[in-house]
């Protein structure tokens, strides 16, 4: 089946190129430091050491590159959600009700924008074709 997000799990970006990407982000120094620490997280699986942090960050950067409209919509929804919970007295009561709705609306709006403007339509058509071939 065709991959919706073409990503090569074997060829990860180098640590230096990942650090360069982190340094170019428009975020605070503390957030950059947290991302750099995450990139150095490793896990031992049997006899192999897996660089989990580097894989997570590389995949996140690839998602941002592939789906910029969806990323922006999710960030806006999370910001609105944070503003909602910061309302005194009512925020903690309203957030469990409206928070998931706001996030779902953000994901929906971003996905719709990707379908209209991005190449997600081509990818979804490929997935539909694959499913039709499987179930036909």
Automatic annotation (TrEMBL):
Q: Which residues cross the membrane?
A: 70-91, 97-116
Transmembrane among keywords: yes
Per UniProt, the keywords (alphabetical) are: Membrane, Transmembrane, Transmembrane helix
Protein name per UniProt: Uncharacterized protein
Which source organism does the UniProt entry give? Parapontixanthobacter aurantiacus
